Amino acid sequence: MKRAILTMGNPVIREALALELHSQHIQTIQVQNWSQLSQLPKGYYDTCYDLANMSLSNIATDLFQISTLLKTCSRLGCNRYIGVGSIGEKEVISLMSRSEEQLQDRFTVHQLVAHCMGQYAANQLHIEFLWALPVGIYGTCLSVGEIPRLIEQLQSSDTLQLDGAEQICDFLHINDFVRALVAIGQRGIGDTEYIISSQNPKKRVDFVTILKQILGCDTHIIWSNTEQVHSLPISLYQNTRLEQHTGFYPQVSFYEGIQSISD
Questions:
Q1: What pTM was estimated for this model as a whole?
Q2: Distance between CA 236 and CA 24 in Å, rounded?
Q3: For 163-178, how does the pLDDT look when each residue is reduced to its tens digit (9 = 90+)?
Q4: Among 22, 71, 99, 125, fewest CB within 10 Å belongs to which?
Q5: Residues 6 or more apart from 105 whose CB is under 8 A from it?
């Protein structure tokens, strides 16, 4: 990988990824809308990072846009595509196997469909397709996601009602996330999906406790649902394949990451 296109997505994450790629002497161009792609020179870029499916505000309203993007990548000469969804896709697959369950998270369903459509299109175009499945991302200047929302609620409320105390989850600092994406782009294997986690999943109640300690909040928490709801097995929150293929290992603990935000 020598030159990469970064498309759409959260601008904070996109800029952090660009900086990490530059530190590895990889040239980048950031594309903020689909029309900009057609103006890029052919034969110059070899890799495309597609961040559009990470957030609800940026996700393509037309699922066929991922196929259009891959066709454009092929025309430009890109032979490697790295898309980003979320680990929630695994939860959707798990729920689909239970006929009595209804899928409520349409956004994550959209990510899963984009994943499948993109993989099919990439195979037809002979483009190496790699797909990242990160846990929740947090970090300085990142205002979206569960952790920023929890921090705001804890700092502004005396009493807070939350769900899913026993639910297993995990969160990854943005610095580790972009390092993992660069490692996938450099050493990942085509037609492979990679879970990206901190490798230290916990119950949601434990994450909230850590947040309260670091922020110095005495907010009273009322857990309205203490049952373990739709939790993925802890064994799934491991970077085994990612570490084997790329050598990546997370460096920022949750405690350190939250401290860096609160300082």
A1: 0.91
A2: 30
A3: 888 889 999 999 999 9
A4: 99
A5: 88, 91, 92
